Amino acid sequence: MDYLAGLNDRQREAVLHTEGPLLIMAGAGSGKTRVVTHKIAYLIEKQGIFPGNILAITFTNKAASEMKERTSKLLDTNVDDMWIGTFHSICVRILRRDIDKIGYDRSFTIYDRDDQITLIRECIKELNLDKDMYKESSVLSKISSLKDEQITPDEHINENYGDFRERNIGELYALYQNKLKKYNALDFDDLLIKTVELLINNKDILGYYQRKFQYVFVDEYQDTNKVQYELVKLLSAKYRNICVVGDADQSIYAWRGADISNILDFEKDFEGAKVILLEQNYRSTQNILDVANKVIKNNYGRKEKELWTDNHKGEPIVYEQLPSSDDEAYFVANKIHHLIYKGYKPSDIAILYRTNAQSRSFEEMFMKEELPYKIVGGLRFYDRKEVKDIIAYLKVLQNPADNISLKRIINTPKRGIGNATVDKIEEYAIEKGESIYEALLAIDGIDTLSSRAKNSVKPFIDMMNILMAKKEIMGLKDFIEDVIASSGYIQDLEKDNTIESRTRIDNIMEFLSVAVNFEERSEGGHLEDFLASVSLLSDVDKTIDQENLITMMTVHSAKGLEFPVVFLVGMEEGLFPISRSFDNEDDMEEERRLCYVAVTRAEKQLFITNAQRRVIYGRVDYSLPSRFLEEMGDTIERPEKEIVKTNNTLEEELLRVRDFTVSNIIKPSPKKRNKSNLDINIGDKIKHKKWGIGTIVQIKDKEDDKEITVAFDKDGLKRLLLSLAPIEII
Ligand code: ATP
Ligand code: MG
């Protein structure tokens, strides 16, 4: 096979440049990843390089297995000897062989997030620090960023000697590292750091890998952090055959320490590096690229580059503003039915959203509509811990005999009730033939419990008893809100104030939205019925065809991937861009790059949607369309009914939207006015509410509607949907 076929001149040049450092910086869909796979195949097949002499680093495990698959398909042989994987998996491989040289045992354990929490909790206790002041997650993320910057505990302590809190964090950091060492364990940051340490301190080991890895590749280079760059530099130092590919416009992990200066450093550190720019995009239609170009232009300090393609202009980009998030989900489901009817496969389609919590309304709609889907890089909504926890509270309140749910929540969030205490209560309950809850009610009579243990449980019992009484008199949503507040669940997460805890809070609020919707739909809104409906939703048949599924995921996890059809949903101010980026220009630019990543995943069709009214955080919110939509300008087809920009303040505007929405759209839920059988003909004169008088110049059938093109006297040609357009025939 000719590995140079199917490549343009510049790509070919990149493949043929086998010796010496190479930097490929190019826009989305320009074939960077394709160059990497073709180049690997070329090296093996044409240059006779042994696969074991090649190292390829990707950003996710999914990308690694895809690259492995593509390469072995190209070569038609297995490439098992090649090292291909994420930074973490490569490091584990190196450490398993030689970590004993830096004082660990080769059977070391890798600590995941939960293990880390347990460990840092131990440290906080040992140093007698206030656990409310030193929340586990925030201490951990601080330690993680110190590690990435290669600042030692001592350095941090010395630098912050006057700062009581930072000094304590330094002490915690030191103790945490000591304990990791003592337990022969490494956290995720350590995997990288210890690998670098091992290589720097053991020249023979470093020499071995430097000789072994004659060719090194790094995909998505723009998202590597300092330590990762350090590692790449070490490994490729001997042969200097290092090829990194990336796109500065797609840098979306600055918040995790990824450093764009690595791109600039590359040219400095690898003198004489060849730089190849790819310009032609092969993935998307020109219409899609126009949207991407138009948005990313608004970032300052970027190298000017425009994506172009030989592909057709393609379908216009559909932008639809829906009255509510449920309508949005319905619109998307409906379009998907149509696409599948036209011949697309479910696996051709992706739904991309900014935050995981948004998947919920789509999940419910897709279940109802029997559309097969999967969620990548996140748990299905009802499988998430925080959602399960809140449901467990409700289950106990509904059914106190539910021991399993009770055990799940009795010490969640932490309220100082030890496992031993729970065990003793359970033993007592079993002996008496009662439920655990009944045993709790008679806690004073449990002799095996110390009075301290009893006191630890009493506030919980009081809280549950009060909630049980409230259940009888409160509405569903208010009740659930009360449960969440009384349990202290959110307060606990708020103290954390980390990315993860914020996500969890979002999900709980989203769960509250489920209740609001349920209450609107159902009669009476009984807790019992609500729990039944939720249990049914969370227990859908999981044995569907795993291959041919619609993909739902966040934009972050879509990096590097492509789909024939993309729905970019929830394009609202505050959601995308996310509100916490409003007062920080750097964060806003990262949001914009994220938007660029999202748009450029689409090959043939791109749909963009938003909702005027979204039940979020358990309350009804009205949002304006995302500023990115405005930046897209005329590259997208605007709906007729989009809220017109005014000079109002945001508050005035929201009020206006609210009035507009409530009076005109929301009640009842918008149904098409049935105008589609209206007798219209080309040449008819019409009057439009906004654009005035015009003449119909074209009529097209569209689903169960008609699309008419009208030449307006003042505003020129417009395309309108007959059923929706505010027109009358004159
Ligand atoms: P991203 O920045 O999103 O990671 P990328 O630059 O890595 O994009 P690829 O995924 O390698 O781009 O390529 C995008 C699409 O274009 C793929 O489907 C790929 O097969 C196709 N492609 C790339 N180069 C060519 C070419 N010369 N001829 C035909 N198709 C190509
Ligand atoms: Mg790529």
UniProtKB/TrEMBL annotation:
Domain UvrD-like helicase C-terminal, residue spans: 286-560
GO-annotated cellular components: cytosol; DNA helicase complex
Keyword terms, alphabetized: ATP-binding, DNA-binding, Helicase, Hydrolase, Isomerase, Nucleotide-binding
Alphabetized Pfam families for the sequence: PcrA_UvrD_tudor, UvrD-helicase, UvrD_C
Limits of the UvrD-like helicase ATP-binding domain: 5-285
GO biological process, one term: DNA replication
Record keyword ATP-binding present: yes
PANTHER family: ATP-DEPENDENT DNA HELICASE SRS2, UVRD / RECB / PCRA DNA HELICASE FAMILY MEMBER
Keyword Translocase in record: no
This protein's name: ATP-dependent DNA helicase
SUPFAM superfamilies the UniProt entry points to: P-loop containing nucleoside triphosphate hydrolases
Stored InterPro entries: ATP-dep_DNA_helicase_PcrA (IPR005751), DExx_box_DNA_helicase_dom_sf (IPR013986), DNA_helicase_UvrD-like_C (IPR014017), DNA_helicase_UvrD/REP (IPR000212), P-loop_NTPase (IPR027417), UvrD-like_ATP-bd (IPR014016)
